[in-house]
Amino acid sequence: MALSMEPSSEKMTRSSHRDCTLVIMAKAPRPGMVKTRLAQNFPVPAILDLYRCLLDDTMALANSLGDADVAIMCPASDVEDLSRVAGNGVRIVAQTGDGLAAGLTSVFAIFGATGERRVIAFNSDSPHLPASVLECAFEALVAFDVVVGPTHDGGYYLVGAKAPHPALFEGDRMGTKSALDTLLARARTMKLSVGFTDPFYDIDVAADLMQLAAELRLAPARAPRTAVWLKEWAQTVAQLRTSTAEL
Question: Under a CB-based contact definition with an 8 Å cutoff, are residues 85 and 37 in contact?
């Protein structure tokens, strides 16, 4: 397997997305099901509102790619609720099986079955990601079998492929600090070439939220709905910063 940090988002050129599909991995905003690691810092209604804002801004980011197809993949039990949250015109597809690994397997089984499309699965809590990184991910699939966007905590915020590779995710402990290493080890075993996009972060814990708040104060247009939520909860976010500094 050939591993490469190229092509980077600064070196790729844009092309048509007519053969590209971006699939957002999402859940219905229900108590105890989303952003659970922020539950000790915010009331449940606020957490659910935050998730709705993140998802809405993520959809706006996805739609900024122009002619790429956009869809949402979710557990079968969440389709109806997500249809109300996402609004009309958004294709929402039920995954087969439970958990994120099953969801990722479903993404490529459904959208990459023909081998004629470049398919990327993207998380629902990195709406502040520059659109150029998604452009880079699709371009990387011209040269590589798989593309991965690493997170700083050992996971990944996106993964893309041109064909289904069920064994790539089977039985993975998704969401752990070894998720990226596990994925790369399996790709190596399967002799799949892997390209990378720039490392980034998603919103899981208080430190992530503080970093996002600082960035969106300077550039709220990157994720406007989330920026409004952060402004409403600015005092609580500031208290998080104080609590972290005291540790």
Answer: no
Closest CA to 102 of 161, 165, 169, 156: 169
Whole-structure pTM value: 0.89
| H or E segment to which residue 25 belongs | strand 20-25
How many helices and strands (H and E) does the chain possess?
8, 8
Residue 72 domain flag = yes
The CATH number linked to 107 is 3.90.550.10
Quickly state the pLDDT bin for 5 (edges 50, 70, 90).
very low
Is 213 among the domain residues?
Answer: no
**Token pair listed for 217:** 């104060």
The amino acid sitting at 39 is A
The widest CA-to-CA distance across the chain, in whole angstroms, is: 54
Using a 10 angstrom Cβ sphere, with 0-12 exposed, 13-18 middle and 19 or more buried, the burial of residue 1 is middle
Number of independent structural domains in the chain: 1
Mean per-residue pLDDT of the chain: 89
Q: Which domain holds residue 170?
A: 3-202
